[in-house]
Design a protein that fits this description.
Layout lengths: L7 E6 L3 E11 L2 E6 L4 E5 L4 E2 L20 H13 L4 E4 L2 E5 L11 H7 L11 H15 L3 E6 L6 H16 L10 H16 E2 L7 E2 L2 E8 L5 E9 L17 H7 L3 H5 L24 H15 L3 H18 L3 E3 L6 E3 L2 H14 L3 H9 E5 L4 E5 L2 H31 L7 E7 L11 H31 L13 H8 L5 H10 L5 H11 L6 E3 L7 E5 L2 E5 L4 H5 L5 H8 L4 H6 L17 H17 L2 E8 L12 H10 L2 H10 L3 E4 H8 L13 H11 L6 E2 L3 E4 L3 H158 L3 H91 L4 H75 L38 H5 L8 H24 L4 E2 L2 E2 H12 L10 H13 L7 H19 E3 L11 H9 L16 E3 L1 H36 L22 H4 L1 H19 L4 H25 L6 H26 L2 H4 L1 H11 L8 H8 L5 H10 L12 H17 L17 H7 L18 H8 L3
Parallel strand pairs: 7-21, 8-17, 8-21, 27-28
Antiparallel strand pairs: 1-2, 1-5, 2-3, 3-4, 6-7, 9-10, 11-12, 11-17, 13-14, 15-16, 18-19, 19-20, 22-24, 23-24, 25-26
Helix pairs in contact: 3-4, 4-5, 5-8, 5-12, 6-8, 9-10, 9-12, 13-14, 13-20, 13-22, 15-16, 23-24, 26-27, 29-30, 29-31, 30-32, 31-34, 32-34, 32-44, 34-36, 34-37, 37-38, 37-40, 38-40, 42-43
Length: about 1500
């Protein structure tokens, strides 16, 4: 590859891996470069890699978009994005996740999940939710199982990423309907802390490292609902139970149990330093983690998973037994090669372990110190030495812990439940990454073997993705060779000669050692290219893995591979009295064996598990997530290049890059290619060719070969993009030289003109100096005369002002005393009048109360007399059986009626009281805040007054000093020197005086401003007080209504409760709509005793009257339902249906009925009318009708019984009430208004109608959002079309004709026009139209703003211009719609308007953070501004976003806020509340007169309703 001077390259660096540099000279194969730190280097051209100088400082979200896809390009792209807290980046379909080591809650809330749900992969910013959603959609669309492979080194965030994937799958998949309260997703998520406690430990690199592999298989049914789950684990690190190194720790569960308090005391546990298995490392606690709290979380997880309390106790008892088992020490016994318990302390631990295992202590001691061998002659007991006894103890501990862990996994799987009928599933693999430490043992060998297998699977997947990309673009391609690691896998697992086979063979022989194993290994693979012998060790070997060479120490290979099952251990624990421990060790099958050891290879078992895992993965569609740990100290915002580069190699990311380089690594869409390289052939950019033809002609002109033209992209081989950039740089250099020549000519001419102008200025300045010197002499003489004159005038004026102020003071004192005397006299006179008025009022009130009490007594006596008379009559009738049955039936019906009313009253009272309490609490908080603001303003005003007083005193002092100086001036007039001194002091004094006066003016101005603010605060305070008073009045109204409803439900009149009364018509028709009688009272009125005693003046029988009443009721009901079903239209803007329903209910006196079902039928009829597929026409119609009917009810109904609890009054009381002022004034009605006394069903109907109006409004709003959402998806991003040559090259991909640009926004305008015509055509009140339009524009604001923040391709300069032009059209529409219908809709677009305004401003780097927050984006939060600033890229002029200082300031603010708030999302939430109340409707909608509405033509079919509506009298 050839380099030229000025090329931008990458140079290898020992510390930073790669550094940016620029070529300054080329000398054959040696190239001289200058790095960014100004260091000059001479390096071979083979070691340089090209760098893109136009790379965006925010990086790219998909690294396949990099101009130069190479190792440093990938590294520094991740670095740029990580600096901006963009932790996710794509490499094709692979997601790279960099651990931020800080909380980013805005990335993982429910709102973010909703954004990624159903979105196309790559449409939004990279995210783990995007990968999870892609796998879920592929599973549902293709009906094929998926798998997500999460890998990375310890501490890279694999476990957290797995949790996020499971959370998203739970969110999108949910749970199918079942009766189980503990759902699958909750148990799977809650199993994580349980498995972490028993399978995670602290390592050198991570405080919570998973020491096992986990494959979570989430099963789905045919509907995509989670139906089951299963968890598989791989290679638990058993040796960690008995052996750890500093600063690592054992498994978390041991430390949690030691910190459990009472449980630890019960098991005789203490601090971890007291136990051998834990004190091998001095690290007992983790930073920021409480073991006691984690213990509680672990127990909670056990409860959710379904582990019983007995099993929980057995688990912790087993863990305690393992710890006590580790403290057993051995000493040499009396016999040769024997051992015994060392001391009394060890015996206590042995006894405690036996008690916890619930087995015999002597038998436990025997199994540890001896071993039995079965022979043909019998059993031989062999003693074990100390080392063998320790090994036996550790083997028992490892075996118990491993089986306990397997039991937990099996229990979780049983508790979660597997769906055997599930055909599709998503598997999430959380497995250890490639490991290469200073000392690598058997665990690292197995882990790296697993990663080699997964890497082969990964390479095949990446190669397959490459082939699919080429096939999709329909280009010709041949087979691409890529590096395969099959030779490494054969080296490790091939039979009969492989490392695992040789290791198993060595373990089969008791006398084999790691030396013999290493010798045979080197003999078998002497010439293998992947295996080397270590330089400084005879037994260590080195394998060349795909990620690099790893040196393995074989010292413990044989011991860790041997998984002996000691029969004595199994027999001992299977005979335990604890059923849990016995269940862990089922009795072994009886078989004759010469040894109690049963060998099992760990490596072979792991190989089988791995093979089963690969078979599972091969049947699924894989998705890859590579987790990266940015630094070794677990600190945020620290990026260690060398470590990350190593992880990228280990994760196979660079392997994927190499596969891409083998094919066509550079892929550009035709528009992007022409934007960058169109300047190479400007003569072709005349608009006569399409983009594909233009691209081909440019490449042919440059004589490039081996490129491919796809359907949408051009594919270039490696190195061809460098040739294009080189030719482009030459063209730009020529243009730059031309510009420089013209610029130098301009600068030379400008310098000449400036020099000539400067000479003229110098000359004029010299002449001016001479003239000023002469003028100053003359001015000094005149100044002396002026000073003498002003001094004499000042002395005379001061004497006059003193005399004047004394006279004014004397006059004001006299006038003040006279005024105070007059004021006191008037106040005493008013007080006397007030006392007299109160006294007269008290006397009048007492006389009225006495009169009222007398009347009540007379009424009571008269009613008592009537009651006694009726009692005598009833006693005579009591003997008749029919009367008794009638009374019994009536009492039963009354009891049912009261029970029904009581339930309704309770529900109504609870809902109304909750609403009132909420509203009152909000108002009280508002008043408290305003009181605080008022006090603050008053204190500020007081401080300003004090400052004014201080300034006035300082002014007075300065005046006194001025007088003293002037007196000295008079005494020294004759001396010229003293005269000059006096003049200078006087000038300084005048300056001081002027400054004081300026400060005083400023203070007065500030005081005036403060007073104005105080007045504004007081006005707001008074306004809120008025609002509070109005709300208190509403509250009192609601309380009165509740009081009436409570009385109607809980109490009845004494006469109506008497068993002897009978109603004049059947009870079931008592609340029906009926024609009014000719008498004075309605049939709905409660009967009085007098009415019941009068004979019925009708010839009809009782049953016939009931039948006629029922027929009339059914006829009226049918008429109302027909009015609801048919579209009656409008008359003079009035909804006919609402007016007819109201008139019919009013004339039939349904509002005064105690019990009726007509209101329920009306509400049901309206709900049925709303159940249509297309509600665009019917919903506005019913919104107009329902709101009009509600307004009529609100204005013309009142609750009965607001003033007195009794509904029946005597005539004398009524006349007395009429003599007073109208009581309706107390509840807000006029004196002669045609109000109707509403009973309980009417009040309930009004509340149901309010809910119906809110429901219709919500349905219209939701339908509008569904209709406009697809349109907004096209309006957020400018469409791309073929650009034409206009004489001036443009970089913008969105240069399109105006008609094409505005086509999508025109659809929005048409949608709004259609909405307005529908609403106004149905005469929907302007109040509702204004609310609907406002909420539609709020939804437009939220949708556009959220899309802008989630899609980087939308945060461009040209796209900002496109959206801004569309917003201008919306502004014109709002102005055309007028404020009556549009309201504050323009203000609802504040967020998107300010965001777009920020995108299209120039010179963003010169703007400070304060200017952005105050001037450009005052409504946006810091997190939103930070998101836009980091995602912005200028596709038109190539300018940069805000400066790095501003980005650093915003990041610092966000870090502080993230520690305070749990949720700080940058997205906006949609408001689903109803923005109005019943009072708002009644105030906003004009009064409707239903009397002149034209009746429907089908009225003649209903004689009863026709008679009522045409002849209401």
């Amino acid at each position: 590859m050839s380099f030229r001077k000025g090329c931008n390259v990458w140079v290898e660096d020992k510390d930073l891996a790669w550094v940016a540099a620029e070529v300054v000279g080329v000398y054959g194969k040696q190239v001289q470069v200058v790095t960014a730190s100004r260091r000059k280097l001479s390096i071979s051209s083979d070691k340089l890699l090209l760098r893109d100088p136009d790379a965006d400082h925010g990086g790219v979200d998909d690294m396949t978009k990099l101009t130069y896809l190479n190792e440093p390009g990938v590294l520094y792209n991740l670095s740029r994005r990580y600096a901006l807290n963009d932790i996710y980046t794509y490499t094709g379909s692979i997601l790279i996740a960099v651990n931020p080591f800080t909380k980013l809650p805005h990335l993982y809330n429910v709102h973010m999940m909703e954004q990624y749900k159903g979105a196309l992969f790559g449409e939004l910013s990279p995210h783990v939710f995007a990968v999870a959603d892609a796998s879920y959609r592929a599973m549902m669309n293709e009906t094929r199982s998926q798998s997500i492979l999460v890998s990375g080194e310890s501490g890279a965030g694999k476990t957290e990423t797995t949790k996020l994937i499971m959370q998203y799958l739970t969110f999108v998949g949910g749970r199918r309907a079942s009766g189980d309260d503990r759902n699958v997703e909750q148990q799977v998520l809650e199993s994580n802390p349980l498995l972490e406690a028993f399978g995670n430990a602290r390592t050198v690199r991570n405080d919570n490292s998973s020491r096992f592999g986990k494959f979570v298989e989430i099963q789905f049914d045919a509907n995509g609902r989670i139906s089951g789950a299963a968890i598989r684990t791989y290679l638990l690190e058993r040796s960690r139970v008995v052996q750890i190194t500093d600063p690592e720790r054992n498994y978390h569960c041991f430390y949690q149990l030691c910190a459990s308090g009472k449980d630890a005391e019960k098991y005789k546990l203490g601090h971890p330093r007291n136990f051998h298995y834990l004190n091998q490392s001095k690290t007992y606690e983790l930073d920021g983690v409480s073991s006691a709290e984690e213990y509680i979380k672990t127990k909670r997880a056990m409860n959710i998973v379904g582990i019983s309390l007995d099993d929980q106790e057995a688990i912790f008892r087993t863990l305690a037994a393992i710890l006590h088992l580790g403290n057993i020490e051995f000493s040499p016994g009396k016999e040769h090669d024997s051992s015994t318990i060392k001391d009394e302390k060890s015996r206590l631990h042995l006894q405690m372990a036996a008690d916890l295992f619930m087995c015999d202590a002597n038998l436990l001691r025997a199994t540890l110190c001896t071993r039995s061998i079965q022979t043909h002659e019998g059993s031989i007991v062999k003693a074990l030495d100390c080392n063998a006894a320790i090994a036996s103890r550790d083997a028992l501990a490892k075996s118990v812990y491993a089986r306990l862990f397997d039991w937990l996994v099996e229990k979780i799987n049983r508790s979660v439940g597997q769906d055997q009928d599930s055909c599709i599933q998503i598997g999430v693999l959380d497995i250890y990454g490639f490991e290469c430490f200073k000392n690598n043992s058997f665990e690292q060998f197995c882990i790296n073997f697993a990663n080699e297998k997964l890497q082969q699977h990964f390479n095949q997947h990446v190669f397959k993705m490459e082939q699919e990309e080429y096939s999709k673009e329909e280009i010709n391609w041949s087979y691409i060779e890529f590096i395969d690691n099959q030779d490494v896998l054969d080296l490790i697992e091939k039979r009969p000669v492989g490392i695992i086979a040789l290791l198993d063979e060595a373990c089969m022989f008791p006398k084999s050692t790691h030396e013999t194993f290493s010798t045979k290994l080197f003999q078998s693979f002497r010439t293998h290219p992947r295996l080397e012998k270590a330089k400084f060790s005879e037994t260590d070997f080195t394998i060349s893995h795909y990620a690099g060479k790893v040196n393995y120490q074989t010292d413990s290979f044989l011991d860790k591979n041997r998984d002996y099952v000691v029969v004595e251990h199994c027999n001992l624990l299977s005979s335990s009295k604890c059923s849990f421990v016995a269940g862990l060790f089922p009795p072994p099958p009886e078989e004759s064996s010469r040894s109690s050891y049963k060998f099992s290879s760990v490596a072979s078992r792991f190989k089988q598990q791995l093979q089963a895992l690969m078979e599972t993965l091969n049947t699924t569609e894989p998705h890859y997530i590579r987790c990266v740990k940015p630094n070794s100290v677990n600190r945020p915002q620290k990026f260690e290049n060398q470590s990350i580069l190593h992880q990228l190699r280990c994760g196979g990311v660079l392997e994927a890059v190499r596969i891409s380089l083998a094919g066509y690594p550079t892929r550009r869409t035709y528009s992007e290619f022409l934007d960058r390289f169109g300047i190479l052939a400007p003569e072709l950019m005349d608009g006569s060719y399409d983009e594909k033809t233009l691209t081909e002609r440019i490449l042919l002109k440059l004589k490039l070969e081996n490129f491919q033209l796809g359907k949408r992209k051009v594919f270039l081989r490696a190195g061809q993009i460098a040739v294009l950039d080189s030719r482009r740089a030459e063209v730009l250099d020529d243009a730059a030289r031309l510009i420089q020549g013209r610029l130098r000519t301009f600068i030379a001419r400008r310098n000449f003109v400036l020099a000539r102008a400067a000479a003229i200025i110098v000359q004029s300045y010299c002449r001016g100096c001479l003239d000023r010197h002469v003028f100053s002499i003359k001015r000094e003489a005149a100044a002396a005369l002026s000073i003498e004159k002003n001094a004499r005038r000042w002395l005379s004026r001061r004497a006059y002002l003193r005399l004047y102020s004394a006279a004014v003071l004397l006059q004001s004192s006299i006038q003040g005393s006279l005024t105070r005397w007059k004021f006191l006299h008037r106040r005493e006179h008013r007080a006397a009048l007030f006392i007299q008025a109160q006294w007269r009022m008290c006397k009048a009130r007492s006389s009225f109360r006495c009169h009222q009490n007398s009347i009540i007594k007379v009424q009571c006596l008269w009613r008592q007399k009537l009651a006694k008379r009726e009692l005598r009559r009833l006693k005579l009738e009591a003997n008749e059986a029919g009367a008794l049955r009638l009374a019994k039936n009536k009492l039963e019906k009354q009891l049912e009626d009261l029970t029904w009313r009581l339930h309704l009253e309770k529900r109504l009272r609870v809902s109304s009281e909750e609403a009132k309490l909420t509203e009152l609490s909000k108002l009280q908080k508002t008043i408290e805040s305003l009181n605080l603001e008022l006090d603050t303003a008053k204190s500020v005003t007081t401080n300003e007054c004090n400052k004014n007083t201080l300034l006035q005193s300082q002014l007075e002092l300065s005046r006194q000093e001025k007088s003293a100086l002037e007196s000295r001036l008079v005494g020294m007039e004759k001396l010229s020197k003293e005269n000059v001194v006096l003049k200078s002091s006087l000038e300084s004094l005048e300056k001081t005086n002027a400054e004081m006066e300026i400060e005083l003016a400023k203070a007065r101005k500030d005081s005036i401003g403060t007073m104005e603010k105080l007045r504004d605060v007081e006005e707001k305070y008074y306004q809120l007080q008025q609002n509070l008073q109005s709300l208190e009045e509403k509250l009192s109204t609601f309380e009165d209504e509740n009081k009436v409803l409570r009385q109607k439900a809980l109490s009845t009149t004494p006469m109506s409760n008497h068993p002897g009364f009978a109603k004049p018509f059947p009870e079931k028709y008592s609340g029906a709509l009926m024609l009014p009688t000719t008498g004075r009272n309605s049939l709905f009125e409660s009967p009085t005793p007098t009415k019941l005693m009068l004979p019925i003046p009708h010839s009809l029988s009782e049953s016939r009257r009931s039948k006629m009443t029922a027929d009339k009721h059914q006829e009226d009901l049918d008429f109302l339902l027909r009015c609801i079903k048919e579209d009656l239209g409008f008359k003079d803007g009035k909804p006919v249906a609402a007016c007819i329903i109201y008139k019919c209910l009013l004339q039939s006196r349904a509002f005064e009925s105690e019990r009726t079902a007509i209101f329920d039928h009306i509400i049901e009829g309206i709900n049925e009318a709303l159940k249509v597929e297309d509600g665009s026409a019917i919903l506005p119609y019913w919104l107009s009708n329902a709101s009009t009917l509600l307004c009529l009810l609100q204005k013309n109904l009142r609750s009965n019984g607001f003033l007195t609890p009794s509904s029946q009054r005597s005539g004398h009381i009524a006349r007395m009430a009429q003599g007073l002022k109208s009581p309706l004034k107390y509840i807000g009605f006029e004196e002669n208004a045609p109000h109707v006394d509403a009973r309980y069903p009417a009040l309930l109907f009004k509340q149901q109608l309010t809910a119906c109006v809110e429901k219709i409004f919500g349905l219209i709003r939701d339908n509008l959002k569904k209709e406009i959402s697809p349109l907004l998806g096209f309006c957020i991003q400018a469409p791309k079309v073929v650009r034409s040559h206009t004489g001036k090259s443009s970089r913008s991909p969105g240069v399109v004709p105006q008609q094409s640009v505005n086509s999508h926004w025109d659809s929005i305008i048409k949608f709004l026009d259609s909405l307005m015509s529908r609403l106004r055509g149905n005469y929907v009140p302007s109040f509702f139209i204004r609310k609907l339009i406002t909420q539609v524009f709020s939804f437009i604001n939220i949708s556009l703003f959220n899309s802008l923040l989630l899609r980087r391709e939308c945060c461009t300069f040209s796209n900002g211009e496109y959206v801004k032009s569309g917003l201008a059209e919306l502004e014109q529409w709002i102005a055309k719609a007028t404020e009556e219908y549009a309201g504050t809709s323009w203000h609802e677009l504040n967020y998107i308007r300010q965001a777009v305004g920020f995108l299209v401003i120039h010179q963003k780097r010169k703007k400070s953070l304060e200017e952005i927050r105050q001037d450009l984006c005052p409504a946006l939060t810091i997190r939103q501004i930070y998101r836009i600033s980091t995602m912005y890229w200028d596709d038109k002029y190539g300018t940069q976003s805000v400066s790095t200082e501003v980005v650093a300031q915003m990041r610092e603010i966000l870090n502080k806020d993230s520690q305070t708030f749990n949720s700080n999302s940058f997205l906006l939430d949609d408001d689903l509340s109803i923005p109005f109340s019943t009072e708002d409707i009644s105030k906003a909608i004009p009064v409707v007169d239903p009397s002149d509405v034209e009746l429907p033509s089908f009225l003649h079919d209903y004689p009863s309703a026709r008679l009522r509506l045409l002849h209401p009298e």
